[in-house]
Design brief:
about 60 residues; about 50% helix
Length: about 60
């Protein structure tokens, strides 16, 4: 399984679980949907990157 396939499968699983729990609604001022945020957080945690690190800014272009 390639890295790309892993990320797509992870996003699918997160999206499916959040939809089943009724938590898949985008907030009015949000630029990302909840499954996108959760998937990014999981990927960062798997890499061992803390979201609070200085200089850690994720933009849609970087994804």
């Amino acid at each position: 399984m390639t890295t790309f396939d892993f990320i797509i499968q992870l996003f699918y699983l997160v999206d499916h679980q959040l939809t089943a729990a009724g938590q898949n609604q985008q907030q009015t001022q949000a630029k990302l949907y909840p499954p996108e945020v959760v998937t990014l957080a999981l990927l960062f945690s798997l890499q061992g990157v803390a979201l609070e690190d200085e200089g850690m800014h994720v933009t849609r272009r970087e994804i």
